[in-house]
Amino acid sequence: MKKIFNIILLLLTIPPLLLTSCGRAPSSAGGGLSVLASATFLADITRNVVGDRVQVESLLPVGADPHAYQVTPTDVAKVSESDVLIQNGLEYENFLETILENADGERIIVTATDGLTPRALDEKSADGHDAGDPHMWLDPNLVITYVENIRDGMIQADPEGEATYRANADAYIAQLRDLDAWIQSQVETIPAERRLLVTNHESLGYFAERYGFTIVETILTSFSSDASASAQEIAATVDAIKASGAPAIFLGDVESVTLADQIASETGAKVVADLHLESLTDGAPAATYIEMMKYNVSVIVEALK
Fold first, then answer.
1. For residue 5, what pLDDT is reported?
2. All domains of the chain, ordered by start, with CATH?
3. 227: Cβ contacts below 8 Å, ≥ 6 apart
């Protein structure tokens, strides 16, 4: 009798174990994928598409400048282990070329800017970057295409998750449209004649086009923050600021303020050096892409009012 009782107890423990295993199955199908994004803002955008189904990691750490990033053996290992790699494209991630040459395995590569037409400089930029301006994420409307490309790449990698990816993408696109409307309302508080941008490198072009700013001048005639400026370029920036009355020079937080400070001392313009253009932050003020954009807009509006 005792033996029968023990058998019954054993059988009673089996169904919960089986249920637990079955409950994990859908998650492990998508969660078994290794999804890697090149930059922190791309990782956040991707997380909004995949939700809880897949874990997403950023190749670049918080605060890294992709224009000056030095590849490590760990980066090669991460890419080797990835099933899906999300990149911005337009030569933004030149460091990926070396990694992919040395990485093992195969993966789906999603280029977030596919289908978008980039801005171009009148002449080839000083650093040899001729694919066009890669900073499309600074216009939330263009990020809608990012989301659609990421969604389609994830469906290719994990067809069973299609319904999840489509629903999440639609919900995030709605948030991006709300963000666009919010930015427009904030920009409208700036007098039209003061919607003037002076930047360190060619970074805010798409943002300016979308929201009605004029790019007065850039210190570095380049899409890369790692370029250098000639004496003629510095003089041209000084003249442009004086002629336009632009009140501020805007830099990303990873950029050197040396030249901007020099130009500010000659023009009276204020240096605003705490925009987050290339990377999210670890916590406030730019922990997510949407928070990054809201923070940057708030800083720009405050400096130009």
1. 39
2. 30-184 (3.40.50.1980), 190-304 (3.40.50.1980)
3. 125, 126, 127, 201, 220, 221
